[in-house]
Amino acid sequence: MKIPFRAIAALIILSLIGVFAYQTFWLTGLYTTMKKEMDNCLQETLQISDYNEMMLRCDSLRKYNMEKKEFGTNYNIDSLTMKDTQSLLFINEPFSITIDKNGSVELLTKYFQRGIHSQLDLFTNINLHTFDSIFTRAIAMRGIAYLPHRIEIIDLREDSTAVCGVSNPVNYMPGKKAAFYYYNYDRHNKMAYRLCVEPTRRVVLHQMTGILGTSFLIIVILGLSFWYLIRIILRQKTVEEMKEDFTHNITHELKTPIAVAYAANDSLLNFNGAEKLEKRHTYLQIIQEQLKQLSGLVEQILSMSMEQRKNFRLSYEDIELKPMLESLIGQHRLKADKPVEFRLAAEKDIVVRADRTHLYNVVSNLIDNAVKYSGEKAEIYIQAFYSDQCLTLKVSDKGIGIPADKQRHLFDKFYRVPTGNLHNVKGYGLGLYYVKTMVEQHKGTVSVESVAGKGSTFILQIPG
User: What's the confidence (pLDDT) of residue 305?
Assistant: First the structure.
C-alpha cells in the first residue's frame, strides 16, 4: 500500500513542529529553573559576603587591640557558651524549641549572624567597598563573570538610603527595569543591604548559550534531514513518472519500426512484392533501415545497463574523425524528414583514440537532436579541433533552444525538455543521458550553451 506524498509531507512537518514544541517547552522550563537558581544565588551571596565582611572587621579589631592594647570586647566568639549565645541573640528558650519553631538550622544561623553583626556594628562601621569586592569575587566563583550592580545600605523603617551605594562598574546606574535583592542583617529588622542589578535574564541566557546552541543545531540537523528526505521522495516520484513516460515512449519507438518492417515483409511474402526487382529492393531497404533503427535503440538501452556494471570496458582504437563525421552527416541528411543544411569544420588529420561504436552513437545523438529541434528547416554546424591535448567537438543548431531553468536537468536519465505545442518530436529521454555517460567513460566532459528561441551548442571535450 503506497502512502500518498501529501500524507508523508504532513507527517514530517508535524514531527518537526512536535520536536520544536518539545524543545521550546524544555528550554522554557530550564530557563525558569536557572532563573530561580540565579535569584537564590544572589541572595545567598549577599549573606556570605556579609559574613566574610564581618570576619575581616573582626580581624582588624583584633589587630588593633593587640597593637594599641586599648580595645577590649565582652565577647570571645571562639569561646561562646550556649547561654552566652542565647543572650547574644535575645533567645529566652532552649535551642531545640527555637529550631523546631523556625523549621531549620539555616534560619537559626541567620539569627546568630545578625546577633554578631549588631554587636560588631557598635565598634566599627560596615565597609561597603570591602563588601562589594567580596560580593564581586563570590559571584565570579559561581560562574557569573560580569554583573553590573549597585550595593547600598537602606533603613527599612523609612525606606531610605542609610549609606551611599557603591557601583560596579563605577558609572553603573540602575535602570527602570532593575531588579532588587534584599538581605536584612539587623536583628531588629531595621537595616538591610540592597542589591540593584539589571534583569538577570541576560546572564541566564548567556549561561544557556551552549544548550541553546546545541538545541538550535539539533533543530537545524533535523530540518535538513527532513528536507533531504522530502527531496529524495520527490526525486523518486519524479523518476517514477519519468520511467512511466519512458515506457510509453520506448514502446511507441519500438512498435513503429517493427510495424513498418512487418508491413514491408508482409508485402514481399503475400502480395508478390518479391517478383519485381525494384519493389523487392525498396522493401528490403525499408526493412534494413527499420532494423538499424531498432538496433540503435536496443544498443543504447543496453549501454545504459552495461555502464553501471564493474566489468564495463571501452574498446579504444585510433579513429579518423573527419570521415566519421562525414558519414554521419550523409546518413542524417538521407533520413531527415525536413530540409537540412550541414556545415563541417574539421581538419583531415584529426585522429582521436576512443571507442568507435560509442563515439559514433554519441555524435549521432547530438546531430539527431539538432535536426529534431530545429523547426521546419535545420542548419547544423559541426566543429572539431584539438586544444591542449584535448579534442573539442561542437554541434550547433539554430533551433528552438533550451530554457535556462531546464538546462540543469538536460542530461538526467529519462528527462525530456517540454516542447510546448511542438508534438512531433519523438524521443524517450535516454539520448543525452547516454551522451553524458559515454563521454564520462572516455574521461571527458559535455556541456551545453543555449538561448531559448535562438539555438543550442553542445560541446564535447575528450582527452587524447
Answer: 59
pLDDT in tens, 206-235: 878 888 888 888 888 888 888 888 788 777
| DSSP category for residue 420 | T
> Same CATH topology for 237-306 and 316-463?
no
The count of other CB atoms within 10 Å of the CB of residue 262 is 13
CA-based Rg of the chain, rounded to a whole angstrom?
Answer: 46
Where is average pLDDT lowest: 93-97, 169-173, 244-248, 410-414? Answer: 93-97
Which grid cell sits at 370? Answer: 539538432
- The whole-angstrom separation of Cα 428 and Cα 416 is 7
Find the mean pLDDT for residues 152-173.
Answer: 84
Q: Which fold has domain 316-463?
A: Heat Shock Protein 90 (3.30.565)
Distances (CA, A) of 189 to 183, 273, 439, 464: 10, 126, 92, 97
**What was the pLDDT predicted at 172?**
84
H helix or E strand, kind and range, residue 210: helix 209-270
- Extract the C-alpha cell encoding 43: 541572595
Query: 237-306 adopts what CATH topology?
Result: Helix Hairpins (1.10.287)
Q: What is the pTM of this model?
A: 0.45
Q: Which residues on adjacent β-strands are paired with residue 447?
A: 459
The label of the residue with cell 559571584 reads: 139
As a whole number of angstroms, the distance between CA 69 and CA 65 comes to 5
Residue with cell 573539442: 392
- What is the C-alpha to C-alpha distance for residues 186 and 314, in angstroms, rounded to an integer? 97
Q: Are 385 and 392 in contact (CB under 8 A)?
A: yes
Distances (CA, A) of 351 to 65, 145, 317: 111, 76, 10
Average pLDDT, the chain: 79
**The pairing of beta strand 340-346 with beta strand 378-386:** parallel
Cα(124)–Cα(63) distance, integer angstroms: 13
Domain borders along the chain are: 5-73+123-207, 237-306, 316-463
